[in-house]
TrEMBL record:
The keyword Kinase applies. One of its GO terms (cellular component) is membrane. It is found in: Membrane. This is Protein kinase domain-containing protein. Residues 60-349 form the Protein kinase domain.
């Protein structure tokens, strides 16, 4: 009987040691501490917490990879109630906890037709995951850039492009004005706009988001955040003005111009150097009253929609925040008559060859 206690005691001691080691590691790990403080301060969240074993089961052991981002991979999954979901598995080596906290803190506060729904999360030691509603058509970039559109065998018509621009603007208006707290996204781009089966857009990926009170007209951030090509000048350098909701407007404007042009804002494969920077090229056409000559335009109605989106996009990417419209004004312009819109001034950032800021920007 006494001899039989040896292995049992040994196993018990090992379990105690493992638990002590795990507890000490958990306490010393700054990422875990940050997340635990956040979860404690926010109390019971409205979204469900899943175990990691549930995540494995839902994704069929991560069988269907939907894509990869800067902070981890996204997999298609299916919950027990039959709903399909997108599961983002955060990379423990890259995520400092900020991505997880930003997503949960911001999206759990929202409820809007043009904002992706966060259904749950997983936090189990170093294992962290976010569970979203599944968007069957994936991201917008698959349908607007030539190389991607050819692969999917689907190019968007002008009406669909216009509806997407309107939908994203409404989502941003909600984030800026419709929530109890103002949420600045800081990473609006085609990759982060998801489309459902009817091509209705939803803003996703709030990993860089900043939550502030509705009274705050300016926000304080450390360094530049966002994706090169979509970052507002003031986010890159405070010499251009204060960082605010107008920074999202800039990113939105650049995205709208990419939707219109069907190409990224800087393209090196074109024949003439004047066409390298698309906003520069399309501005010159508007200024000289030339036809936009874009392949998706098939009627006079299309021409008006595209011209309207182009003018609004150019207003949104004005160099100084004070000259950009708020997103509510953007919606007003998009839903109004194109004849009432004026072509904006030409920002000096339009010339990559002469702008030191643009040259520095490309190396960001």
């Amino acid at each position: 009987m006494v001899l039989g206690l040896g292995p049992v005691v040994t196993v018990a001691l090992l379990l105690v040691m493992v638990k002590i080691y795990y507890t000490r590691w958990k306490k010393k790990n700054p990422t875990n501490q940050r997340i635990e403080v956040f979860l404690k301060n926010h109390g019971p969240l409205q979204i469900k917490k899943y175990s990691y074993s549930e995540i494995i089961k839902a994704t069929n052991s991560f069988r269907n990879n939907l894509g990869q981002g800067g902070f981890g991979c996204v997999y298609k999954g299916k919950l027990q109630d039959g709903r399909y979901v997108a599961v983002k598995i955060l990379n423990a080596l890259k995520d400092s906890g900020e991505e997880f906290i930003n997503e949960v803190a911001s999206i759990s506060r929202t409820s809007h037709i043009n904002i992706v729904t966060l259904l749950g999360f997983c936090y189990e030691g170093s294992k962290r995951a976010l569970i979203y509603e599944f968007m069957s058509n994936g991201s917008l970039e698959k349908f607007i850039f030539d190389e991607n559109a050819q692969a999917t065998n689907r190019q968007l018509d002008c009406q669909t492009m216009y509806d997407i621009a309107i939908g994203v603007a409404r989502g941003l208006e909600y984030l800026h004005k419709g929530c109890n707290t103002r949420i600045l996204h800081f990473d609006i781009k085609p990759h982060n706009i998801l489309l459902d089966e009817n091509f209705k857009p939803k803003i996703s990926d709030f990993g860089l988001a900043k939550i502030c009170t509705r009274k705050e007209s300016m926000v304080s951030i450390f360094g530049a955040r966002g994706t090169a090509g979509y970052i507002a000048p003031e986010v890159f350098s405070r010499n251009f003005g204060a960082v605010s909701h107008k920074s999202d407007v800039y990113s939105y404007g650049m995205m709208v111009l990419e939707i219109v042009g069907g190409r990224k804002n800087i393209t090196v494969e074109v024949d003439r150097s004047s066409e390298i920077y698309f906003p520069h090229w399309i501005y010159n056409r508007l200024e000289s009253n030339q036809e936009l000559d874009l392949k998706n335009i098939k009627s006079e109605s299309d021409e008006k929609m595209v011209k309207k989106m182009t003018i609004v996009g150019l207003w949104c990417i004005q160099t100084h925040p004070s000259t950009r419209p708020a997103i509510s004004k953007v919606l007003e312009m998009l839903e109004g008559n194109v004849e009432a819109l004026q072509v904006p001034p030409k920002p000096f950032l339009f010339s990559p060859s002469t702008s030191p800021v643009q040259l520095s920007w490309e190396t960001l």
